[in-house]
Known about the structure:
alpha+beta, Ribosomal Protein S8, Chain: A, domain 1, 4-stranded antiparallel β-sheet, globular
Amino acid sequence: xxxxxxxxxxxxxxxxxxxxxxxxxxxxxxxxxxxxxxxxxxxxxxxxxxxxxxxxxxxxxxxxxxxxxxxxxxxxxxxxxxxxxxxxxxxxxxxxxxxxxxxxxxxxxxxxxxxxxxxxxxxxxxxxxxxxx
Length: 133
């Protein structure tokens, strides 16, 4: 390509550089990437039973424990963002704080929280997050 600018050689170089390196991407490639970049759903690794869970002491309040619920995979950022958005609702619904640590959903509560009713509520929250992504 012959440069038709008349200002300076630098202007010519910049124009040539931009023309040769920055090409418009094809729209169908962008569309395909967008469609395949959907978030993966996350499920509990095992059935929710007290025997399948691990826990450790926490400092939030005297009887507090971090209860770890293993997930089948490490959630991606979209899933994590959805969890963060729903965390206030979850805190009201469960009466407890839930967070994510790697491939584990973490509930800060008491050992008495490891019961069937709490497990059902956690399953509902997980289903809601999966619907969100």
